[in-house]
Write a structure and sequence with these properties.
Helix content: 55-70%
Number of domains: 1
Distance between the termini: 30 Å
CATH superfamily: DnaA protein, C-terminal DNA-binding domain
Largest sheet: none
CATH architecture: Orthogonal Bundle
Strand content: under 5%
Radius of gyration: 17 Å
CATH topology: Chromosomal Replication Initiator Protein Dnaa, Chain: A
């Protein structure tokens, strides 16, 4: 039987997932419209004095934020739906915003096989982008 706290967590998770899905869909829509209007979107200049990303601290900050948002620890080896959902967000963010390999990304969290990470990324696409 689910408790009221579990239901609150589920609603919070669903709310944040819906926001991510809506934002990504809106971004795609507006990019497509600008392209139809022949507007060239310039990429921001990259300064040469930019320090390389510290993937460990980025990973730790992301894990900490996801854990706070979901009230759990995504490094836990359990496979509850909430923990798996948190890992899915982690993998998606790290894949999208870093140039790490799948093996490198999974090594920063719980050292899963890269095929598990591929499956998680597909689950993200199926759940939140389709």
């Amino acid at each position: 039987m689910t408790t009221i706290e579990d239901k609150k967590k589920q609603r919070a998770i669903q709310y944040h997932c819906d926001i991510i899905k809506k934002t990504e869909l809106e971004l795609r829509y507006h990019k497509r419209k600008l392209k139809e209007l022949n507007v060239v979107i310039e990429e921001p200049e990259v300064k040469e004095d930019v320090k390389p990303l510290d993937y460990n601290s980025l990973s730790e900050n992301l894990i900490e934020n996801i854990n706070k948002m979901l009230w759990l620890d995504i490094r836990d080896r359990k496979r509850t739906e909430e923990i798996v959902t948190g890992r899915i967000f982690y993998y998606h963010y790290m894949k999208k915003h870093t140039d790490l390999s799948l093996k490198g990304i999974s090594a920063l969290l719980i050292n899963q096989d890269h095929s598990s990470l591929i499956y998680s990324l597909r689950m993200f696409d199926d759940r939140y982008l389709s």
